[in-house]
Design goal:
Length: about 220
């Protein structure tokens, strides 16, 4: 457990040192949502029905901006080799990278969402399910990005591979997340929210194992 916390502290320190990338993700998220009402006008009847899908699409696109370098520096510096020789399993290492990446990118977007949602005239009763669904959804998107980043380390054109992997797999997250953000008689734990949680649970089970295997393959190819 101490090794895991040490790894997370190291990752957070590296993210803070290169905090410009996290700032780009947040800025991208803010710009997409801010430009939307400027493009179609400030009419409430037009903005309100489209607000939730716009927020989710902005979160997806902003998340894509920060995935390409999750493992790049660790692979180049040989840190992945050191982790492979340490008691920390590579799957847990990949999961720690997902957690720290979400803290740097997903959490700031989550904190900015209430203000942006009100700007788009989202109903107050939609805020709670929107925040919960977006928290779960951005975690799921981060896990997809971690998997794509690990697979991309062994490919020549990792950026294109990342987009091809993340975008199709993110469609269920986008659909369930948008539907779960709409309040209904089921309260916060609506059927779509439960489906979104199920997607996150499946990714938590699959991504660490798959990412660890991809990193081992990438290290084998580079050596």
């Amino acid at each position: 457990m101490n090794i895991l916390f040490a790894q997370m502290r190291r990752d957070l320190a590296l993210i803070w040192a290169g905090r410009g990338e996290a700032a780009v993700m947040l800025a991208f998220f803010l710009i997409i949502i801010t430009l939307f009402p400027l493009a179609i006008g400030p009419d409430v009847a037009t903005l309100r029905p489209m607000a939730l899908p716009v927020i989710w699409i902005a979160a997806l696109l902003a998340s894509l901006a920060g995935f390409s370098r999750i493992f790049a520096e660790d692979v180049r510096s040989g840190w992945v080799d050191q982790v492979a020789l340490s008691p920390l399993p590579l799957g847990i290492y990949a999961l720690s990278k997902a957690v720290t990446h979400w803290l740097a990118g997903g959490l700031p977007m989550l904190l900015a969402t209430p203000v942006l949602a009100l700007m788009l005239y989202v109903d107050l009763e939609s805020l709670a399910p929107l925040i919960l669904a977006l928290a779960i959804g951005t975690m799921a998107l981060t896990l997809l990005g971690v998997l794509a980043a690990a697979l991309g380390e062994g490919a020549r054109n990792g950026g294109s591979l990342m987009a091809l992997l993340v975008l199709p797999l993110a469609v269920p997250v986008l659909i369930f997340g948008t539907l779960a953000s709409t309040p209904d008689d089921g309260g916060l734990l609506s059927p779509h929210m439960l489906l979104l949680m199920a997607v996150l649970a499946v990714l938590l089970a699959i991504v660490p194992v798959a990412a660890a295997a991809a990193l081992v393959e990438a290290e084998t190819d580079s050596s």
